[in-house]
């Protein structure tokens, strides 16, 4: 059975690039255009991993991570932040919120898939 990954980014083209890479590697993909939209998609189904941008309208990535960690079904879901932010302060804020990995854009799909395969739970 395929593992499900939720991709959250306000850039449709970025979501597409990430989705193509993930689907090519055999994952199922759900998409959210911002934190608020993504939260509405977490309806109790199994999500094995979340990849989220940091800077988004309506609800930014850090707030989104904090909200996800409050949900019983998703408290332990690993989250990768995929962002243009490379400042240490942002990274530590992300880690404190519960993000497990930080991938800086522009990224190589192989590098992202490597992070995904390390974090995704069997």
UniProtKB/TrEMBL annotation:
GO terms for biological process: phosphorelay signal transduction system. Residues 4-120 form the Response regulatory domain. This is Chemotaxis protein CheY. PANTHER family: CHEMOTAXIS TWO-COMPONENT RESPONSE REGULATOR (PTHR44591:SF25), STRESS RESPONSE REGULATOR PROTEIN 1 (PTHR44591). The lineage of its organism: Bacteria, Pseudomonadati, Nitrospirota, Nitrospiria, Nitrospirales. InterPro entries: Bact_response_regulator (IPR050595), CheY-like_superfamily (IPR011006), Sig_transdc_resp-reg_receiver (IPR001789). It comes from Nitrospira lenta. Pfam families: Response_reg. The keyword Transmembrane does not apply. It comes from the Bacteria. The modification 4-aspartylphosphate is found at residue 53.
